[in-house]
Amino acid sequence: RDAATIACARTARAVVAPTAWHAAEFRRAGVRSVAVAPEAVDPDLWSPDAAAADSEARRNVSRLLPGPRPAFRVLSVFKWEHRKAPEVLVDAFFAAFGDFDGAELVLRAYRPSWEPGDR
Protein backbone atom coordinates (compact mmCIF):
# COMPACT_ATOMS: atom_id res chain seq x y z
CA ARG A 1 0.00 0.00 0.00
CA ASP A 2 1.08 3.51 -0.77
CA ALA A 3 0.94 5.42 2.54
CA ALA A 4 0.41 8.80 0.85
CA THR A 5 -2.50 7.45 -1.21
CA ILE A 6 -4.16 5.92 1.85
CA ALA A 7 -3.67 9.09 3.90
CA CYS A 8 -5.29 11.13 1.13
CA ALA A 9 -8.15 8.64 0.72
CA ARG A 10 -8.91 8.80 4.45
CA THR A 11 -9.59 12.53 4.13
CA ALA A 12 -11.90 12.16 1.12
CA ARG A 13 -15.67 12.31 1.44
CA ALA A 14 -15.82 9.17 -0.75
CA VAL A 15 -13.50 6.95 -2.78
CA VAL A 16 -14.59 5.21 -5.98
CA ALA A 17 -12.69 2.01 -6.74
CA PRO A 18 -12.69 0.03 -10.02
CA THR A 19 -13.11 -3.42 -8.40
CA ALA A 20 -14.40 -5.04 -5.22
CA TRP A 21 -10.82 -6.05 -4.42
CA HIS A 22 -9.63 -2.42 -4.57
CA ALA A 23 -12.57 -1.35 -2.40
CA ALA A 24 -11.76 -4.05 0.16
CA GLU A 25 -8.11 -2.90 0.27
CA PHE A 26 -9.18 0.70 0.91
CA ARG A 27 -11.60 -0.42 3.65
CA ARG A 28 -8.92 -2.62 5.22
CA ALA A 29 -6.68 0.47 5.32
CA GLY A 30 -9.31 2.44 7.22
CA VAL A 31 -11.04 4.33 4.42
CA ARG A 32 -14.69 4.59 5.44
CA SER A 33 -16.72 5.52 2.38
CA VAL A 34 -15.77 3.38 -0.62
CA ALA A 35 -17.95 2.59 -3.64
CA VAL A 36 -17.27 0.34 -6.61
CA ALA A 37 -17.77 1.63 -10.16
CA PRO A 38 -16.61 -1.17 -12.48
CA GLU A 39 -14.60 -0.31 -15.54
CA ALA A 40 -16.87 -0.03 -18.56
CA VAL A 41 -16.09 -3.02 -20.75
CA ASP A 42 -19.04 -4.65 -22.49
CA PRO A 43 -18.17 -8.35 -22.86
CA ASP A 44 -20.84 -8.76 -25.55
CA LEU A 45 -19.21 -6.04 -27.64
CA TRP A 46 -15.72 -7.51 -27.24
CA SER A 47 -16.67 -11.16 -27.82
CA PRO A 48 -15.23 -13.23 -30.69
CA ASP A 49 -18.74 -13.45 -32.21
CA ALA A 50 -19.12 -9.66 -32.23
CA ALA A 51 -15.69 -9.25 -33.79
CA ALA A 52 -16.49 -11.80 -36.49
CA ALA A 53 -19.65 -9.88 -37.40
CA ASP A 54 -17.95 -6.46 -37.57
CA SER A 55 -16.28 -6.07 -40.97
CA GLU A 56 -14.89 -2.60 -40.16
CA ALA A 57 -13.23 -3.92 -37.01
CA ARG A 58 -11.71 -6.81 -38.99
CA ARG A 59 -10.30 -4.35 -41.54
CA ASN A 60 -8.83 -2.19 -38.77
CA VAL A 61 -7.21 -5.17 -37.08
CA SER A 62 -5.80 -6.36 -40.41
CA ARG A 63 -4.38 -2.88 -41.06
CA LEU A 64 -2.84 -2.57 -37.60
CA LEU A 65 -1.60 -6.18 -37.41
CA PRO A 66 -0.62 -7.15 -40.96
CA GLY A 67 0.46 -10.62 -41.94
CA PRO A 68 -1.02 -14.03 -41.30
CA ARG A 69 -3.50 -14.28 -38.46
CA PRO A 70 -2.20 -16.38 -35.57
CA ALA A 71 -4.26 -19.22 -34.12
CA PHE A 72 -4.18 -17.49 -30.73
CA ARG A 73 -3.75 -13.75 -30.12
CA VAL A 74 -3.44 -12.16 -26.67
CA LEU A 75 -4.13 -8.43 -26.48
CA SER A 76 -3.16 -6.49 -23.37
CA VAL A 77 -3.96 -2.79 -23.03
CA PHE A 78 -2.49 -1.01 -20.04
CA LYS A 79 -0.69 2.01 -18.68
CA TRP A 80 3.06 1.26 -18.79
CA GLU A 81 4.27 1.44 -15.21
CA HIS A 82 6.17 -0.70 -12.73
CA ARG A 83 3.10 -1.76 -10.72
CA LYS A 84 1.46 -3.20 -13.86
CA ALA A 85 4.48 -5.56 -14.12
CA PRO A 86 4.68 -5.91 -17.90
CA GLU A 87 7.64 -8.27 -17.46
CA VAL A 88 5.34 -10.71 -15.64
CA LEU A 89 2.91 -10.67 -18.58
CA VAL A 90 5.68 -11.30 -21.11
CA ASP A 91 7.25 -14.05 -19.00
CA ALA A 92 3.86 -15.72 -18.50
CA PHE A 93 3.09 -15.56 -22.22
CA PHE A 94 6.34 -17.27 -23.16
CA ALA A 95 5.99 -19.79 -20.32
CA ALA A 96 2.55 -20.72 -21.65
CA PHE A 97 3.29 -20.70 -25.37
CA GLY A 98 7.06 -21.17 -25.62
CA ASP A 99 8.05 -21.64 -29.23
CA PHE A 100 4.47 -22.15 -30.45
CA ASP A 101 4.28 -20.20 -33.72
CA GLY A 102 0.49 -19.93 -33.54
CA ALA A 103 0.47 -17.48 -30.61
CA GLU A 104 0.97 -13.73 -30.66
CA LEU A 105 1.20 -11.21 -27.83
CA VAL A 106 0.04 -7.68 -28.74
CA LEU A 107 0.73 -4.90 -26.26
CA ARG A 108 -0.98 -1.51 -26.39
CA ALA A 109 0.77 0.35 -23.60
CA TYR A 110 0.86 4.06 -22.94
CA ARG A 111 2.28 6.62 -20.55
CA PRO A 112 0.06 9.64 -19.90
CA SER A 113 1.48 12.97 -21.00
CA TRP A 114 1.26 14.38 -17.47
CA GLU A 115 3.71 11.81 -16.05
CA PRO A 116 7.42 12.65 -15.91
CA GLY A 117 10.06 10.62 -17.71
CA ASP A 118 11.30 9.78 -21.17
CA ARG A 119 8.72 9.38 -23.91
Structural description of this entry:
The strands form two sheets. This protein has a two-stranded parallel sheet. Strands 3-4 form a two-stranded parallel ribbon. Helices cover 39% and strands 18% of the residues. The two termini are 27 Å apart. The chain contains five helices and four strands; from the N terminus they run αβαβααβαβ. With 119 residues, the protein is an alpha/beta fold.
List keywords for this structure.
alpha/beta, two-stranded parallel ribbon, 5 helices, 4 strands, 39% helix, 18% strand, elongated
Helix content: 25-40%
Number of H/I helices:
5
Give helix and strand order, one letter per element, not per position. HEHEHHEHE
Uncertain runs are none
End-to-end CA span: 27 Å
Structural category is alpha/beta
Mean residue pLDDT: 84
Detail the topology: elements first, then pairings.
Blueprint: H1 3-11, E1 15-17, H2 20-28, E2 34-36, H3 48-53, H4 55-64, E3 72-79, H5 86-97, E4 103-110
Parallel strand pairs: 1-2, 3-4
